[in-house]
TrEMBL record:
Superkingdom of this protein's organism: Bacteria
Protein name as annotated: DUF885 domain-containing protein
Source species of the chain: Modestobacter versicolor
C-alpha cells in the first residue's frame, strides 16, 4: 500500500527550486533529464560560469542544511541532497570540473550527444536544435 500524498514540505520546495536553477545553469543536463525550456542553450564553461555553478551548489547546501525534515521522506531526501551536492561541490573545488576532458564522457562529448536527446517532431523542435547548434562556437570559446 502506498503512503498518502502529503503537501510539499519546505525541503520539497527547495529541491524543486534547485532543479529549476540547476537546469538554467546546466542546460545540457536539463535536456538529459527532460527539463524543457533550456534546449537552445549551453552551459557557461568559462571560469565565471564554473564559479557561478559552485555558488549555486554552496547556497543550496547551506539552505538544505537549515531545513528540518518533517518526516522520513524528508530525512532521506535531505541526506541524499547533502551527499550528492557536496560531492559535486568537492569535485568543483578540486578543479576537476574545469579539467574534465576524456574520450568517452566530458563536456566536449556532451555537445554532440545532447542533440540525440532533443525532440525532432515539429518545426519548433528543429528551430530549437538550430539555435542550439548555432550557439556551439560561442559556448566553446569559454
Amino acid at each position: 500500500m502506498s503512503e498518502p500524498v502529503r503537501p510539499p514540505s519546505d525541503l520539497d520546495q527547495l529541491a524543486d527550486r534547485f532543479v529549476d536553477d540547476y537546469a538554467a545553469s546546466q542546460p545540457a543536463v536539463a535536456t538529459y533529464i527532460g527539463v524543457r525550456g533550456h534546449d537552445d542553450r549551453w552551459p557557461d564553461l568559462t571560469p565565471d560560469g564554473h564559479a557561478a555553478h559552485a555558488d549555486l551548489l554552496r547556497t543550496t547546501i547551506a539552505a538544505v542544511d537549515r531545513v528540518d525534515p518533517v518526516d522520513r521522506r524528508d530525512e532521506v531526501a535531505r541526506a541524499a541532497m547533502l551527499e550528492r551536492l557536496g560531492a559535486e561541490l568537492a569535485r568543483s573545488d578540486a578543479g576537476w570540473a574545469q579539467a574534465d576532458l576524456n574520450t568517452i564522457d566530458s563536456p566536449l562529448q556532451a555537445f554532440r550527444s545532447t542533440f540525440d536527446l532533443m525532440p525532432t517532431v515539429t518545426e519548433h523542435d528543429w528551430a530549437t536544435i538550430a539555435r542550439r547548434l548555432a550557439a556551439v562556437p560561442a559556448a566553446l570559446d569559454g
